[in-house]
Amino acid sequence: MVSIRPEPVTVGGVPLSNHILLAAGVLGTTGASLSRMLNMGAGGVVTKSIGPLPKDGHSGPCLVVLEDGLLNAMGLPNPSMEFVDEITTLAKKPVVASIFGGDPEEFATVAGWFSGKVAGIELNLSCPHAEGYGAAIGSDPALVKACTEAVSRSGVPTWVKLTPNVTDITAIGKAAEAGGASAIVAINTVRAMRISTGLRRPVLGNRYGGLSGSAIFPIAVRCVYELYEAVDIPIIGCGGIATADNVVEMMMAGASAVEIGSAVYDNVNVFEIIRKELYAKDGVRHEEIVGCAHG
After folding, report:
1. Is residue 165 within 8 Å of 190, Cβ to Cβ?
2. Looking at residues 118-147, what average pLDDT do you find?
């Protein structure tokens, strides 16, 4: 496996201590948990998605462990504006606030709460199980462009997280780039469901959910590969990454950094484990492998 030199990197305007970030929605609900992940080797952290109004989320079961990943339908539960106080102790740390809204104005409002308090903003335009939010907006290029513009015009580094549940993800990526995105995050969960044969009903309270974990890694690699050839802004790979070799593969597809979510559920020490295998003083510069699979 290729090793990388252990050096800080700036991706999409956000300075990171290494190439591996905590993805939104996993241990990102409190300032203490975000700080813990930074102390345990994450090069940056993304918060739980925060919206314009408090939400309780869907009724349970909301999370089901599968043999090859996780199936969830949380429904974007969040305390809304009250969350801002959670991250006051993390000033000047590589914290990216994940936000959602129902239209460009709501995105701009929520982004404003975090202005000057975080290193960047990640637009959740990709959650597949929250009616009126996420992928409901993120599948429309015009809306993606408008929501991105509403946040990026403030000057804050703006990442846009894309859904794989579209016919052509490059069209959405180009719309985000046209709206002023600093980087693209690809991908969020894949629409999925399971049915309990014993209970004769869906296993999730919401019936439908999003699949994450190792099962979707090949999908994420393909999306990153396609986006790398379609846009000029950096890409952060996300989806099923669990090993150092997964990180290298994603970077070869075109990712400048990666986010890890489901693997944290399996092992909270995953960042330190990957760091020890990924980095070496005699390793290559990351620029040498980002996108090298394109010929």
Report:
1. yes
2. 86
